[in-house]
Each structure stands twice: as structure tokens, then as C-alpha cells.
Amino acid sequence: MLNSLIKNISDDFKTLSSGVLLVEDNNRFLFRADVTSALKEEGILISHGTSLKQRVDFELRDDKYLLVLLSDQRKNYLEDIERAAVRYEFFLDKYLNSYHIPAIINEDLNTLDALFKRNPVISLSKQETLAEIRSARSDNDRNTFDIDSFKRSLAIDPDLSTVDWNKIMKVISNGLITTIGTDQYNSVIDEINRVNDIFQQHLKSNYAQLKKSNPVKSPKIVSKILDYIDFNFSNDKIALIVIDGLSLWQYRMFNDKLNGKKQENIIYAWLPSITQLSRQAIFRGKKPERSYRQNPDNEEKLWKQYWKDKGFNEFEIKYEHDSTDIENLISVKRLALVFNDLDDYMHSSKDYTDLLKLTENWIDRSGIVAIIDKLLQEDFKVFITSDHGNIHAKGWRKLKGREKLGTNKSGSRSERHIEYSEKWLKDELLISNPELKDSVIQDKHAIYFKTDSSFSSKKSLVTHGGSHILEVLVPFIVIKNEA
Fold first, then answer.
1. Whole-model pTM above 0.85?
2. How far apart are CA 201 and CA 305, in angstroms?
């Protein structure tokens, strides 16, 4: 435990040159069983409890241990103990003085040791300390990640109707967060792609039914979100936050910063997972139209029209795009906030190592946590979701020459989805490139990847537009004020 927190505490105790210490610890850190056990390994025996117990420990003390008689307030001992001992007042912030002590006092020793070794030179607020704790935990997780345990957690029953995809996605998300940038990342991706093969079977059998599903208990697909809100929260103030391109693993990078009572689930994006279709489905509240053009003005019209049809007045409905203007909400009952910048970060990333760092930056820069706190304080029920996730893809190759003829970009930057103006153009591409057949899904004039390939010459990129599990299953979070 060289240079560790426990080692430093132990060394300080031993420099007091006494076989017995009378230690006052108002934070009660030294009372913890794990701390007591760790200090014993360093030759320090902690004794607390009744005066009789401490007297017995004093009388029977072993010279190979430094005996610490512990109290949480100054305690009077008998004269013979006082003569043999040195008094000492213990403060945890002597060792972790840069942190907000109430935020760290109950953390496990591995996390505290990581915090101790980081040793920031400036004092951190509670929120900054919590961020350091999350980072320290993540570092520890990376050091202890068990790929075999990860694989066991992703064992899937052949009866796909019994699979808990929410649980599967949480396991996948934790595996990604823990291993991005490490040697184990490729093994995690291989396992995720194995699960994705099974997920594609599930989509083939069940996706059509999801479009017709009943949203009363929970929405299964993004086109049902508004109906779910309308049925269950008709008399509440609602804030729907749509974060373009947010995967579940990215949400789990900031979920424990959020206050309120959270109900965390997943929801299916509209396929193919391009913004023009899937985000349109959210704000239209039903099947998207292919002729629709994606832009903030059209999106605002859809949002307002849905709620006007439900009897709300214009002044009760508000839409904000890439803006954090959430002032003067007294009359607002239906608020939509759309964040596009995380999707921009995603498209600029060459891999998940880039995207993880950019997501950390986005969490701080966007002020998403403070925005949600303010909405909760103003009695809004807050809903967080996304139109699609993202995937660390590899390039198949770019379309060339005649293959580009008749393609319709549909306002999408996707490199995993192509829509042709004529069916025969799509068929010609597949006939000329038979290796594509088992990797794509055909949808009328369009094709999109179900594997991790893309229509790109890049070896590595982050994008969306296909039906991979990482693109399709996105967060659907309901947050209510605990008060």
C-alpha cells in the first residue's frame, strides 16, 4: 500500500512515538470496519466500544501492534492509560483536504486511495468532488474489469421474448465506459457485436409490432413518447429533452449527477436511425413522413401542433433548439429542449476514445445537470431521450461512380444509410456487391447496415443510421422532483 491513504495515516500514527494512542475522530472514519482491517495490516490495532472493552484491549495489548483507543469526542480515560498514551485528534481532511469531505467520507478505500493519489492543488466544490469520485471509480473499474464476467452477464436466452434488453444495454454501457481506451476494448466490442447479431433476429421478428404498441404503461418506440406523456401526465408541466445522438453509455456518464427520482429505461429509435425519421417520429407523435425536411422550424411546428390538438394554448407550448433559455416558464406547460451539439461531437470523432472525452466536455459545457435541476425546481416532470445512438464503425468503402446515381441524402449525414430514388438502382448496387447482402437491411429504396460497417473509406469513424443495437436502443428517462 505504498504511498496510499492508509499507509500515510499509519505512518503519522507511528511517528507519535507511543505504544498507545487516544484518538478522537469526529468524522468516524477510523470506526469503519474496512479501515480498521486495513490499519491492522499496517500494525495498528483499533479499539472502540465500551470503556470495559477498551480497558481489556489496553491490558491485553500486544507489543507488535500500536493500540489506538478510539472515540468520536474527547473522552476521559483512567490515569494509568493516560500516562501510557498520547492524545491525538484525527481529521480526514488532513489527507484529502482538496475535496468536499461529506461527499467522500463513505467512499470505499480503493476510491479514496485513488483520490488521495490524485491530490488536486485547488479546493473542489461538492459537485467537482463528485465528478472526481466518478472518475476515480472509473479508473478502478478499468483496472479490475473482468471480461469473462462481462460475457456471462450478456448470456441471452434463446427464447428472445424473455430478454431484458434494458438490462443488456446497462451491461453493455458499463463495459464500454470501463474499457474505452484500454486493451480490453476490442474484446468488449466483439462481445457487443455478438449480442447485436441476436438483436437483429429480435428486430426482424418484433420491430413491426413495436410501431403498433400501446404506450399507456411505457412507450416502446420513439413515435409513442408523446402519447405516453399525454395519457399519464396530462395535468403536469412537461419538459421533453431530446439529445441528438445520445447513447445509453453516454447518459450513464452523467446520470448520477441528476437529482430527483429517476425511472431509467430504453426505447427503440425509428429505423433507419437517421435524424430526419427518428426525431421527426418523436415530435410528430406517430409514423414519420419521408417527404419531411428536418429543420428546427418544422420540428417546432410538429411539437406545437401535437399539443394544440390536445387542447393546449400557444402560450403554454415552448420549443428551444440548441438554447438554454428556460426563463419565464410560468405559463409554459409543454416545453421541448433539443441539443444538437453532442451529435456534432459524435460525427467529428474517429473512435469512442474521442467521443468519451468530448462527451465529458459536453456534460460540463452544456450545463445539462443545472438545466434539469432548474426544471425540477419549477415543478416540471422531465423526460430525457434521443433520436438515435451511435456506433464505432469501420469503413466498407465509399460509393463510387454509377453507385452514387439517384442517391437521396435526405438531410442526413449518415454513412450507414443510403436511399435511392429508384428501386433498380438499389438492386444494382447489391447485385454488383454480393458481400453486402448479409450486412444490410433493405427498406423499399433504401439500404442500411445492421453490422458495424459503413459506406466510408475511413478505417474508423463514429456515426449512425443503421440498426445496430448501439444505434437503436436509446435512453428514455423520467425524472420527478423528490419533494
1. no
2. 37
